[in-house]
């Protein structure tokens, strides 16, 4: 075992510095493993839509294209595969942002206006599902943040709330601003069990893989929310009950 051998060699050479050296190696190995797992997961997730795309292309070229109905059906599936690939690539690029990147991206936003702008991006689906989104907080609150990281947090929480809400329901976004900015996004959707709540912030974890895939989910949204909240010096937590709904709380420092 390499770790034990290294520990032994370090022991021989430096005596009292053993612990530090072992810790460093463990840390590096852990990061390497996370990276390997991520690449493995990404490859797996990319493979499925690509295989499907190739399969349908071949079938069309082999003659299915002579049948207009079949052609439309296959092209619709292919369009969904391509959109899925696009979302995956967007999320992977999103996750590759480094906290040292764009260090000068601080901007001041008026929270109310910003939240309303984010909601407006989803007017189409909100109308289609007949979902109302309300904002509750002190108007005229200004907040300075790194939008590169702050915007994807709000976007992903809002997208999920819409995604996992039933038709004709309400989503509430409430916030308070003091030395911290606290935002709570509450939905009355499918909710989730305690066990799932522990894992949803992991990259690629999905409660219902088939459902998430069908609806275009990548399983990366909440990982982005968690990692970005931490980059901004804050945290995220969830409270949820199956069939009743979920509330995601973001707490960020107000510096
Ligand atoms: P996805 O792209 O699948 O939505 P996320 O990382 O955003 O991936 O979320 C991980 C999983 O957590 C989802 O697949 C879903 O099962 C669950 N989830 C996230 N948000 C909600 C919510 N508001 N209500 C119920 N389940 C949710």
SSE blueprint:
Elements: H1 2-14, H2 18-61, H3 68-95, E1 106-110, H4 111-120, H5 123-129, E2 132-136, E3 142-146, H6 147-163, E4 170-177, E5 180-187, H7 194-199, H8 209-214, H9 221-231, E6 235-241, E7 245-253
Helix pairs in contact: 1-2, 2-3, 6-9
- Strands, total number: 7
Distance between the termini: 47 Å
Give the distinct bound molecules.
adenosine-5'-diphosphate
Average predicted confidence as pLDDT: 89
Give the strand order of the largest sheet, numbering strands 1, 2, ... along the chain: 2-4-5-7-6
What would the principal axes of the Cα set say about the shape?
A: globular
Low-confidence stretches: none
Keywords, separated by commas or semicolons:
255 residues, alpha+beta, five-stranded mixed sheet, 9 helices, 56% helix, binds adenosine-5'-diphosphate
How would you describe the overall organization of this protein?
This protein is α+β, with helices and mostly antiparallel strands. 56% of the residues lie in helices and 18% in strands. A five-stranded mixed β-sheet has the order 2-4-5-7-6, covered by helices on one side. It has a two-stranded antiparallel sheet with strand order 1-3. The longest helix has 44 residues, at 18-61. The mean pLDDT is 89. Its main location: membrane. One of its GO terms (cellular component) is plasma membrane. Residues 41-255 form the Histidine kinase domain.
């Amino acid at each position: 075992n390499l770790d034990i051998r290294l520990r032994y060699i370090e022991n021989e050479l430096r005596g009292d510095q053993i612990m530090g050296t072992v810790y460093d190696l463990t840390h590096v190995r852990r990061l390497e493993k996370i990276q390997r797992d991520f690449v493995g997961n990404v490859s797996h997730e990319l493979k499925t839509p690509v295989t499907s795309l190739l399969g349908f292309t071949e079938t069309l070229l082999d003659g299915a294209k002579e049948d207009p109905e079949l052609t439309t059906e296959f092209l619709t599936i292919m369009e969904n595969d391509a959109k899925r690939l696009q979302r995956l690539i967007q999320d992977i690029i999103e996750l590759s942002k480094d906290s040292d990147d764009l260090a000068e991206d601080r901007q001041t936003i008026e929270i109310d206006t910003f939240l309303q702008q984010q909601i407006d991006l989803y007017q189409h689906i909100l109308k289609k599902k007949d979902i109302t989104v309300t904002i509750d907080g002190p108007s005229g609150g200004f907040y300075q943040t790194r939008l590169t990281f702050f915007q994807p947090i709000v976007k992903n929480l809002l997208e999920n709330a819409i995604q996992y809400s039933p038709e004709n329901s309400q989503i509430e976004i409430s916030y308070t601003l003091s030395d911290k900015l606290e935002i709570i996004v509450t939905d009355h959707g499918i909710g989730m069990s305690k066990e799932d709540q522990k894992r949803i912030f992991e990259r690629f974890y999905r409660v219902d893989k088939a459902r998430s895939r069908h609806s275009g989910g990548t399983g990366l949204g909440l990982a982005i929310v968690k990692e970005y909240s931490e980059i901004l010096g804050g945290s995220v937590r969830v409270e949820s009950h199956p069939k009743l709904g979920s509330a995601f709380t973001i707490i960020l420092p107000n510096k």
